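Lecture 7, part B: from sequences to assemblies.

Below are the input chains for today's worked example.
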Amino acid sequence: MTLPLRSGQVASFKWYRVLALARKDARELLRNPGAIAPPIVMVFGSLFPAFLVIVGVPMMVGETFEESGEFAEEAARAAGMIPELAGLSGNALVQTFLFHQFSLLLLLVPIVAAMALATHAVIGEKQSKALEPLLATPISTLELLAAKTMTPFLFALGLTWAAVMLYVLGAGMLAEPGVWRAIVGPRLLIMFGLLGPLVELAALQVSVIVSSRSNDPRSAQQLTGLLILPITAAFIAQLMGVFIVGPTVMLLAAVGCVVLNSLLLWLGVRVFQRETILTRWK
Amino acid sequence: MAAPLVAERLTRLFDDRVAVRDVTLSVNAGEIVALLGPNGAGKTTTMRMLAGLILPTAGRISINHIELSEATAGMARATVGLLTEAPGLWERLTVRLNLLTYARLHGIADPKSRVDATLRTVELIDRADDLAGKLSKGLKQRVAIARALLHEPPVLLLDEPTAGLDPASARHMRDLVLALRSEGRAVLVSTHNLAEAEELADRIAVLKTELLAFDTPAALRSGSGGSRVVIELEGSKERLDLAVKDVSEIPAIVAKLVADGARIMRVTPDQRSLEEVYLQLVGEQR
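Predicted structure of the full complex, as structure tokens:
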């Protein structure tokens, strides 16, 4: 495969070099509890509130949503905007509506996972002073950038999908019959098949850029953690009934993420220049 | 045949700061060249340019007959082994996995057997499955040199290979460097250790932003202010203290004195040490 570079030059992009480094990164990450613990904690952290509110609280107060009338109005309003709610009624409708609302929290998994893994993948190389010998091989900076994002991307994506499966599985086991089927639909597919990976890629790229200027994974993560804010704000806003995130909104957000990712890629390639890494990365 | 490593009039600027100016040197096959210079003299920048890691602002570099440019840098790097100042190992991985990753990055056909063969060369095969982070500094340095040798490069650039090593590890490393020369490789060693430079190097380059000298150790000692010879004569309390261009002139001087009837008790060549020559060159005389 050949890729055009600046000044019209052409350099060959070798996947075997990307895979060699990505494999190494995967092995290192698996041996680094400091890197993999936060994403795993985040999986459970993002699942817990939904099951607490939708299953735990009604059990504790001994009253279903249908009986208490809680969220019934919002659920009925959302039925027109979320196609998966059509045909449901009573407690199942409210539960499905809430599962859809809380699913936004699962978008924090790819962000936190990408952040934690990418900062370790880049800062780890800086801390061990492994970048110079690495750059002394025939690897190109584009291959290096691809390798440094591939492992965290795949790990984070795997964790996100695992979280989604647990979410649906949990709904199947603990919620009203048929709720889990109504969770799986276009909204979930767009959210975790398209928007999730795009948000994750943005988090990864921000992490790589920030990591180039930092020597401590935690301080890099604090900066990239700002990415959590828009998701949290959207989650709170929709819980308060300000708006409902339907498939259209999600598609628009995906388009925004594509633009953001293009900008970040441009920035990332500039940061990932061999000379910059050798002389400016401290 | 042209030298595998040639640098002509290399200049490197970082913004407005001149790191290296107008440096010309070469390393032949089967030759060790030592690169000496004070801290901040541009040694690491020179090594990085010669390894194809960064490009010079001006001048040309030929690495294994490949003219270095942005387009050829990857190809050139594939023929150079670089030992960096810090070993830079992945400490959570074993020695074997460290090297296997590099073997794969170099596209070596049978990476596992090459790694084992290289580990045997540096006498580390019995530590192959140890975590890199558990090794001593000397052993880490040996893994790093194994990494530099994996792709069997004809040119080796070693940045302070014995810095911080205990005497036994340093001795082992020097023996390894000498073995590399006998294999016909071109070796450039950056060091602060003048005794080591004198022991290893066929030629010595002294750098302080510019190249101050580039010659054999003997020529450097005699060429920079020359040598002296002290001759004690029988029955005389005075000694002859003569300046000579080279110690090879001494037999002729002695022969002339004897022919003139002098009875010579003792002849002591007083050659300047490499340290004196070096300090004079870099302008840091004690």
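Note for the exam: Residues 167-182 of chain B form the longest helix (16 residues). Keep this in mind when comparing with the next example.
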